Amino acid sequence: QVQLVESGGGLVQAGGSLRLSCAASGSVFNLYAMGWYRQAPGKQPELVATETGPRSANYVDSVKGRFTISRDNAKEVLYLQMNNLKPEDTGVYYCNAPQSLAKWGQGTQVTVSS
User: Fold this and answer.
1) Sign of CA dihedral 105, 74, 46, 13
2) What confidence tens digit (pLDDT) does each residue in 18-60 have?
3) DSSP-derived pairing of the beta strands 35-39 and 46-53
């Protein structure tokens, strides 16, 4: 059974950086491209970063140039490097496979203060 465990969130000032991690057990990590979702308060989850190939990804316009998705296949860990954070980046971040959604993890809270 797939298990997704996100970590690395926290409280940071605008302009700061965080690196999120997603430990993924099970086959979804190895079989599918992974992505990071953000759920802002009172809103639906938004897919902000998606792998499209070994070294390529798509990003929502609001995070382009600031966020980078990557993975470590040996460790089965997905990362999201977030730089120059803005208050509008605040939310709970989840990882999952957009093409084959697994059970959602608990997410990790990111709060960016202005």
Assistant:
1) positive
2) 999 999 987 888 889 999 999 998 999 999 999 998 889 999 9
3) antiparallel
